[in-house]
Specification:
This is Short coiled-coil protein. InterPro entries: SCOC. It is found in: Cytoplasm, Cytosol; Golgi apparatus membrane; Golgi apparatus, trans-Golgi network. It holds the Pfam family DUF2205. With about 100 residues, the protein is mostly helical. Helices cover about 85% and strands about 0% of the residues. The protein has three helices and no strands. It has helices spanning about 5-15, 15-90, 95-100.
Length: about 100
């Protein structure tokens, strides 16, 4: 007794046109898979590029924060220095307006 599989029955029923159609469908499927693979690769590369950009921006923000703290500290020192100069100078001393009027 001959063993007949579903594949051998289907293969026997296919005409040349059907074989060409399945070949084309198979190629279309491969082209779709290739297109999907290219799209995934493009998206992965884009994500990696954005990740590097985010790291660069984060590093830059950290640097700006440090510079900001440094400048705030310097401004406080300069403000205190100016206050000390103003208090030591007679030009900036408060005067008694009543004594000037007399």
């Amino acid at each position: 007794m001959v063993s007949i599989t579903a594949c051998s029955i289907v293969a026997a029923l296919h005409s040349k046109k059907e074989d060409e159609y399945f070949t084309m469908s198979s190629e279309d499927g491969e082209m779709e898979n290739q297109a999907e693979l290219e799209e995934k690769t493009r998206l992965i590369n884009q994500v990696l590029e954005l990740q590097h950009t985010l790291e660069d921006l984060s590093s830059r923000v950290d640097g700006v924060k440090e510079e900001n703290l440094k400048l705030k500290s310097e401004n406080q020192v300069l403000g205190q220095y100016i206050e000390n100069l103003m208090s030591a100078s007679s030009v900036f001393q408060t005067t008694d307006t009543k004594s000037k009027r007399k």
